[in-house]
Design goal:
Elements (H helix, E strand, L loop, with lengths): L4 H7 L15 E3 L12 E3 L5 E3 L8 E6 L4 H17 L5 E6 L4 H10 L5 E3 L4 H6 L12 E5 L5 E6 L4 H19 L2
Parallel strand pairs: 4-5, 5-6
Antiparallel strand pairs: 1-8, 2-3, 4-7, 7-8
Length: 183
């Protein structure tokens, strides 16, 4: 199923906003009843180890599509690193999907920007993106999704994500999880 941002904004009860109140169809929060469950997947990471969709079970996860050749990806890399470090103690996981790259260039990018979370290799990223039911694509770079603990896509950002936007999306999903858990 392919869903466009405008349709998602309609499903979420109105215009998409970036939490500052400004409409932006590139930033979409998805209402819980409208969320798509991420299908099962397995993939190889840049370090040669393997990852599967079970890594998403029970945790809030940020998945970012990136490439070392991508200018906006270089802009957002420090943001993703910073936010991943800030939310590490709250159990938020980060996973990159490297696209249209070779592993050596991707690993050099990760070293340059001190990225500490794992990334899927270019060869496995398109297959992994299919597990997201059309809400994550390797054609739009960069792109970021936030996955809730039930392995459902809760938010999507097309283009470089800002720290404020990513924090707001994470806080929203973490608050939902806390409410569900009775915290």
């Amino acid at each position: 199923m392919v869903v466009i941002a405008g349709a998602l904004a309609g499903c979420s009860g109105g215009e998409a906003t970036d939490r500052t109140g400004s409409p932006d169809p590139a930033i979409v929060e998805i209402a819980e009843p409208d969320r798509v469950v991420v299908d099962d997947f397995e993939a190889v990471l840049l370090d040669g180890s393997e990852v599967s969709s079970s890594r998403l079970d029970g945790v809030v996860t940020v998945v970012n599509v990136w490439g070392s050749w991508c200018g906006p990806c270089r802009v957002e890399a420090p943001v993703l690193r910073e936010v991943s470090q800030q939310y590490d103690d709250r159990g938020v996981e980060f996973l990159g999907l490297n696209v249209r790259d070779n592993d050596a260039a991707a690993l050099a990018f990760e070293r340059r920007f001190k990225i500490s979370y794992d990334s899927v290799t270019t060869s496995d990223s398109p297959r992994v993106s299919l597990a997201f039911g059309g809400l994550l694509t390797t054609a739009a770079v960069p792109m970021t999704v936030v996955v809730d603990p039930e392995r459902r896509v809760a938010a999507r950002v097309i283009g470089a994500v800002t720290a404020a936007t990513l924090r707001a999306l994470l806080e929203s999903v973490l608050e939902e999880a806390d409410d569900r858990d009775g915290r």
